[in-house]
Structure formats: C-alpha cells, structure tokens
Amino acid sequence: MATTLISTLTHTSHDLKDPITPSPPKLAKYLQEDDITQECQALISTLPKDQGWVLSYLYQYQGFWHPIRQLQGVLSCQRHFQARDTDIILITSPKCGTTWLKALAYAVINRKTNPPRGDNHPLLSFNPHKSVPFLELKVYVDHQVPDLTELPSPRLFSTHLPVESLPLSIKETGCKVVYLARDPKDAFISLWHFANKLRPQNSCKLQLEEAFDKFCKGVSLYGPFWDHVLSYWKCSLEKSNNVFFLKYEELKVQPKLCLKKLAEFWERPFSLEEENNGVVDEILSLCSFDNLSNLEVNKVGKLSSGEQNNAFFRKGEVGNWANYFTQEMTEKI
Ligand code: PAP
C-alpha cells in the first residue's frame, strides 16, 4: 500500500489509471465501522456522538465531527506526519472545491515535467484526488504509516482537518498552506447531494430539512463549518507568508489572477514567457469543470476509498443553493 502511494506521488509514469469499475457504490471506506483499534474504541467511548449523514455515527473530537474510521486516520496522522518547510498542504472543508484545487496545484507544481497541453498529462488519466492524497483519509488510513521521506520536494498533501486538529509539525514548519473556502450555502447543498450518493441504494434519501438542521448545529463532516473557516481565516491574517486564504467564488470569477497568486505563493511564479505562451490558460482549461468532468476516468472510475469519481463533479457553479433554499433557510444560515 505504502509503495503504491509513493509511486503515485512521484508520478513519473503515466500508467496510473484509476480502475474503471462500474459497480454499484459501497459505503466509502472512512464511513465503515469495522477494523477499529482498541485505542480508537476507547477514545470514542468518551466522545459526544450523533447520527451522521450517511449511515454511520459521527463523533466530536477536538470540537469537530468525524466518522470513526476517519477519526482513526486523524489520530495516526497527528502522531506520525512530519511536515517539511517545502511541503504544500491544501486544506478545505468538504465540498468547497477540493478536487479543483488539487488539480490546479498538481498542474502548476509539475508543469515542467508534465506540460498542461500534453496529451499524456496525468490529470487526463487519473482523478485529482489521486495526485494529492488526503493525509487522514488516504496516507494514514487503515493503520498505514508510510515512509514519506523519499518523496521529492515539494510534497503535495491535502486535508480537511481543522486548525485545532492539524499535526503539530504543519503549524511549526514553514510549509505552505492554501485554505479554500466556499459560500456555506453552496457547500451545504453540495454535501447533501454527496451524502445521498454515498448512502446505499436500498436506504432512503436524507431529507434536505434534516441535513440542514444538522449542518446548522455543526453536525456535518468536519463541522462546524463556521469554526473551520474562521480558524483558518484568523491563521491567514496572523501567518500570511504561510497561509493563503482563497474563496471558491473568487477562483470562479478571476481564475487567472488567482492562479498566478497561488503560483507565487508556492514560489513557482509563472515567467513572462510562460504567460505569453499561454501556460496559465492551459492549466485553467485542463483543470476546468467541463474538461475534468467529461474525462472517461472521472465518468466511470472510482477511488480506492470507494467513492465514484463522478461524485466529485456535479454542477461546479456559484449560487446553485438558490434552487433549494427557502427564505427561512437563507435567513437562518
Ligand atoms: P471533497 O471536499 O469531498 O473532495 P470537493 O471537490 O470540494 O469535494 O467538492 C465537489 C464540488 O466541487 C462540487 O460542487 P457542486 O456540488 O456545487 O457542483 C463539484 O461540482 C465542484 N467541482 C469539482 N471540480 C470542479 C472544477 N474543476 N471547477 C469547479 N468546481 C468543481
């Protein structure tokens, strides 16, 4: 498993295609409740518990809600992950544009070895989640403790963890964190759709009103949503050299400007020659919703954690919430 992860992250080859398996969705790995360590069992017996959005429980750890298997990954990542000054960490609350940010970061950082206009670009044959793995959901899942020291710099990782639960070394080193935020109304609608896709086919749909109540109470994956965003917002003010706060809506409206700022933040600015040659536009077009969502791999492939790749592409719009919210919901949120 660790070897697969390392080879995925070094991505020197283009043969890393996601499996094309049109099988019915199973409960995603981090929502399963088996194979839990005694340590984690003991911990959860002390934690507040509430019914989750899929079929498993959520437990409140360090102020934020997790399914049990995910929590196990959180504990392991807190214990073992050693950040480097050169690391790039992408952080989001779920459904705030993680997939898009991963694609952009991967394409920017690897543009010399994998020019964005190439027919063989890795993002054409595997889902962006494979190019930038989640620490707690992929790297440290299932009791793995991979040796990440051989990975070339900059290493790219992602997490949904709140500031309060980040491994200490991320806070103490000079690694570059990008936090992507999104209008909570759109993030909520996106999460509600996603949760219903993750629910087994024979179970009933989670009603919008029920999900909304939970979201407003903070009981959602990595919720409370507001605490998550606010902590990173404060961090970005205090440590502006290390934490870049970006909004999905800004990225939509001014993608070119945002991408150039991101590349500068990562200390890989676009040269004038690259700009004149259209490299920035090519990366944006490679990572666009239309392009990624229409790739074969993202239509029928699935992640090793069990989610169908197409579950990460729905509308990709700003303001889709308006089709679902009542006046009362808008006021409440
Ligand atoms: P994750 O946090 O579980 O990894 P994430 O990628 O943040 O998921 O959420 C998916 C959302 O990003 C979807 O939003 P929607 O439900 O409102 O449509 C998805 O459509 C959107 N998305 C995925 N890829 C892109 C992209 N390339 N450009 C813009 N939006 C995108």
TrEMBL record:
GO molecular function: sulfotransferase activity
Keywords: Transferase
Annotated protein name in UniProt: Sulfotransferase
Pfam families assigned: Sulfotransfer_1
EC number: 2.8.2.-
Lineage: Eukaryota, Viridiplantae, Streptophyta, Embryophyta, Tracheophyta
Family label: Belongs to the sulfotransferase 1 family.
Domain Sulfotransferase stretches: 85-333
Gene of this entry: LOC110686077
Originating species: Chenopodium quinoa (Quinoa)
